[in-house]
Structure prediction request, 182 residues.
Amino acid sequence: MALLLLAFNAVEVSFGYGRHEYYLTPKQQIESTKYNILATVAVVLGPCLAKISICLFLLRLLGDAVAKKRKFFLYVLMLVLFVYNVVDIITILVQCRPTSKIWNRKAQGSCWDPNVQDGFAYMQGGMSATVRSHWRHVDHSIALSAFSAFALSAFPVLVLKDLQLNLRTKIALCLLLGLGVL
Prediction:
């Protein structure tokens, strides 16, 4: 995902992304915005897949040592993360009809009220992902992603506290496995 994001960022910058619109031709404005939208998809999907990977790692690492309630929590968290982020990506891509109106202001068509996309992005949030909502940049770092980061950081503490390890080893493992909150 990071390589895909890097590729989209390189292309959007080559079209002038980051410069003031005043200095860009209409074609550069359209193309840089188009690749920014594609980069946004990678920004939303990347952390989601990373967190699902961490859940799968925890399930495999802990195996049968984890109570069924805790396993169920991880499975539900993975499902909610995946479904919500896919819905968020869909709302990004279908907020305008035709889709090209997202990156071309002068195209004929219509777009949803920007508050619809903002609501999804606030809920998804958490990675300071820049989400374009009808040509407005909104930096979000809230709800679902923040909750999942804290939950995945705290989860090892719940499991490790019951293991028969010395206190120093438990603390070291909890700190290492809890670094995801940063």
Summary: Residues 14 and 42 are 18 Å apart (CA to CA). The longest helix spans residues 26-62. The radius of gyration is 20 Å. The longest strand covers residues 129-133.
